[in-house]
Amino acid sequence: MKISDLSELAVRNLRESVLRNSLTTVGISVGVASLVAMLSLGTGLQQLFTRRLEKSGLFDTIVVSSRREMRGMGRDSERTGVNPAESRVLDEPARREMEKLANVVEAYPDIRLQTELRFEDKPHLTMVSALPQSAKSNDAFDDMQGSFFSSEIAPEAILQKSFAEELLGKTPALGAPEPNVADLAKPLLGKELTMVYPQREAVSQPPLRPSDVASSENVAAESYSVVSREQKLKIVGVSDLDPESMRGPMRGKLFIPLKLAENLHIMQAADLRDIAHSGDAAVYGSISVRVKDPSQVKGVEDAIKSMGFSTFSILDASRSMQQVFKVLFAFLGIFGSLALTVASIGIVNTLVMAILERRREIGIMKAIGASDADVKKLFFAEAGAMGILGGIVGVVFGWAIGQVINFGTNIYLRRQSIPPEHFWAVPWWLAVFAVVFAVIVSLVSGLYPATRAARLDPVQALRYE
Amino acid sequence: MTTAPAISAARETTAIRSESLCRYYRMGENVIRAVDGISLEIPSGEFVALLGSSGSGKSSMLNLIAGLDRPTSGSVVVQERDLAKLSREELAKYRLHVVGMVFQSFNLIPSMTIAENVELPLRFAEVERSRREALAMEALERVGLRARIHHRPTELSGGEQQRAALARALINRPQLLLADEPTGNLDSHTGIEIMDLIREFNQQMGMTVVMVTHERALAERYAERMISLADGKLVDDRPNTPLAGRTREAQS
Fold first, then answer.
1. CB atoms within 10 A of CB A150
2. Contact between residue B208 and residue B16 where contact means Cβ atoms under 8 Å apart
3. What does the pLDDT average to over B166-180?
4. What is the pairing mode between strands B73-78 and B81-82?
């Protein structure tokens, strides 16, 4: 029999006992819904973690430093390779070169200094760090008070919570409850503070002394002087989380826009070290290179190493995370499938009942020329139709359950002052998989009834009233 | 028309031949000999009545010829096919293309309309929908049921249902029409209408007809040959001479 005829007859037969077949189909959809609900929870959690990891910038960032930087001495990579003294200087041309590498999103210099800040005429010492505009997507700034920098050169500052506490003199004693970040931000946002910083200033006419003239080697073509400057900054944001947690003691507590920092020509330690090579141009202590995807870190890292620099990255932890999620997935899938298993027994029951009821009809069909295969296919088609319908309804149902639970959980999270999350996801492949799985389960369930119907003896069946 | 010579030529070939055909059933301790060593030969185009009381084995014989049942021993050869040697699949094809069947209780599928019932064998034969509909219409026209095509069997009278069943039996243009008490559930007037139709198919299309009945009068009126069974054995086999009834019928 043709597929079109089969499906037509199957749908007709299903409509003949609407109540029973609908109940069976509801059974399948409940099974599929539970499967979809379980797996979408797994998928949602996985996506949430991946998103968090990606946003943290921990796994897609490579920190590049010059081999001339001796602080990390003793590492394998530094003991081998080019002699540090002969290696390249980490300057603007090197940064541009890195930015041109494949899979690199951006490469920005790391400008940080420990300096003095004056707030309401009181000096404070802290670590200032410059951030590119792209840092806005870092999850540390997701729930900050106030806003991110209005532009890349705006004289604005974002404070890390602990520095905000210090400015207000509210640093909690050990073990004491942490003050709320919103309360800290209220008196600070919009206020001004003054940053004192050393500026690197080019000297157009180097002061020459007669003794220098005698030996031409001592005459520097270019040089700079260091001048103490002040810059007023408006506080625009207070962040609860620590955006530079991976930098340990070097992490910034006050952040300013990167372009602003570059324009201010803030003097960096590396400037002093490499003055012989760079002259007036800026030299960077380190450069952060952000790649498109954590999996590309290794390749980009190798490319940068071959340029003659040292690199540092955190091994892609998301891969081992995937393993954990695979196991979780399997467990959730097994639990979700239980209901579908029960539903499949329902299919067997419904079809066996249908054989009893339609015994005579099967006999008639055989008498007028239906083969065993025709009868078998017909019952298969009925099982398959229930599977498709139950699968589709189940996916919608499962999705709805997810939405409701997501909604409910977020109400709870909000009460606990935890920002809402989306930990429930039904991607298209899950929907397709669920429907296909439902059809397969239905067909397998239909196997026994269909075979039984096909083997029915037509003479007996015709005698049946 | 060349039907008459074609039919007479067909008469020379054998449609059905059985040799020592047996069909036994086991009922607990007892063995029931439903068909017990029947040998007969039916030429193509013949109208044969199988007579006998209830339990004589006539329906079992018909089921064996229809390929719905398999012999315990002996052979039944229809149109040169030894049915005992055919696979289940081949038997289904045989029933689909060679045999048309009508039953006492009509056996239409109640959930389908008359048109759908009639075209059902064509679905198994994988005939295109448009051709299927045309053939069903033609068959229903032939039995005078064109106006009732969209009705369900339960909405039709017994006679109409049997006409529909006849249309269904004819749709694949079988060489053999097997009728199991076709008038058993009909009043005598309607029964005659149905029998007239069967005879029409026999005479106009050269179809071999084997009809099971216990009504001797009906057999005498329509069949060319009457075979009587009792306890699974053939007890009488004679031509219905001199077709007096048939001629009278034709004249009236």
1. 11
2. yes
3. 93
4. antiparallel
Give the residue from chain B lying closest to A455, CA to CA: B88
> Using the beta-carbon criterion (under 8 Å), do B124 and A371 form an inter-chain contact?
yes
pLDDT > 90: what percent of chain A?
15
A415-430 pLDDT, tens digit each = 877 777 777 788 888 8
Residue of B nearest to A8 (CA): B123
Mutation to test the B interface, candidates A362, A368, A378, most B Cβ within 10 Å = A368
CA atoms within 13 A on the CB side of B108: 29
Cβ-nearest to B89 among A1, A371, A462: A371
**What does the DSSP 8-state code read for residue B71?**
-
Percentage of residues in chain A having pLDDT higher than 70: 86
Query: pLDDT tens-digit profile of A169-191?
Result: 877 777 777 777 888 888 888 88
Q: Evaluate if residue B250 carries a pLDDT over 60.
A: no
CB-CB neighbors (< 8 A) of A16 in chain B: 111
Q: Where are the domains of chain A?
A: 3-54+320-463, 59-317
pLDDT of residue B244: 47
Specify which residues A254 forms β-bridges with. Answer: A128, A159
What are chain B's domains? 3-98+174-251 (3.40.50.300), 109-173 (no CATH)
Under 8 Å between Cβ of B206 and B7: yes
Q: Which amino acid is at A12?
A: R
- The count of CB pairs under 8 A between chains A and B is 71
| CB contacts, 8 Å: B171 with chain A | none
* Cβ pair A364:B107 closer than 8 A: yes
* A369:B97 CB<8 A: yes
Tell me whether residues A365 and B125 touch, CB distance under 8 A.
Answer: no
Better-predicted residue by pLDDT, A81 or B31: B31
**Residue at A435: amino acid letter:** V
ipTM of the complex: 0.90
Chain B residues with CB inside 8 Å of A367's CB? Answer: 66, 68, 95, 101, 103, 107
Computed over every residue of chain A, the mean pLDDT equals 82
Mean pLDDT of A312-324: 71
- Mean pLDDT (whole number) for B117-141: 93
Helical packing angle, B158-170 and B188-205, nearest 10°: 10
> Is residue A210 over pLDDT 70?
no
- Tell me: pLDDT of A301 over 50: yes
Q: Hey, are the CB atoms on A372 and B168 less than 8 Å from each other?
A: no
A368/B123 CB distance under 8 A: no
What is residue A47's predicted lDDT score, i.e. its pLDDT? 81
